[in-house]
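Q: Could you fold this chain for me?
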Amino acid sequence: MRVTEFSARADALRGNAHRAGAAVAAAPRRKEHIRDAAVADILRAAERVFARAGFSGATMAEIAEAANLPKANLHYYFRTKVALYRAVLDHTLSLWLAQTDGIRRDAAPATALAEYIRAKMHLTATHPDASRVFANEMLHGAPQIGGYLRRELKALVDEKSQVIEHWATLGLMDHVDARHLFFTIWASTQTYADFQPQVCAVLGKAKLTRADYERATKQLVRLILKGCGINSKV
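A: Sure. Below is the predicted structure, expressed as structure tokens.
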């Protein structure tokens, strides 16, 4: 075999080995992606069922049907209804709490609070069932996530409240009770999901539109910023 032929064959073998290695490395990523997609579908289906029937009334069979999965497949990902219910709540909280990242000492209060309100309202519009499941959990005394609320949530709100108090000390906004400010934002945004039939009835609509959410968001931002003594057209 000539040197050039040997070199070409060696290059080809190295190329095959590289592609094989890449395929082996990619396999776990594909499996992880498939699992993540399946879990996301299950969580959205579970949100719908838990929001309609509550924890006690919901069944794994109903959730499997809503997710277009055999019940056995559902149990592969979540062995019990409690585990699935807790996963729905954990997912909801992770979505909500991630939106507080912009509330930092070096941020402008008008921008940070406006963006937080917009983000919370967006999640209300896109994940209304998640909000209803959470509200139902609260109405029943938070049996599944009471410990989380008293520890992690309280710690986060304490941290973000210190930021708001820092802004007030700098004269960037009025002194307000920061913790109650968070309650106000949560209540005013989540009501568009939790009490949607009431909102629709008063507005004379069968369902809320994107324009309705945009109008409500704009008003909430204006009211809350003015209430905090922040003059801005954010």
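A (continued): The chain is about 80% helix and 0% strand.
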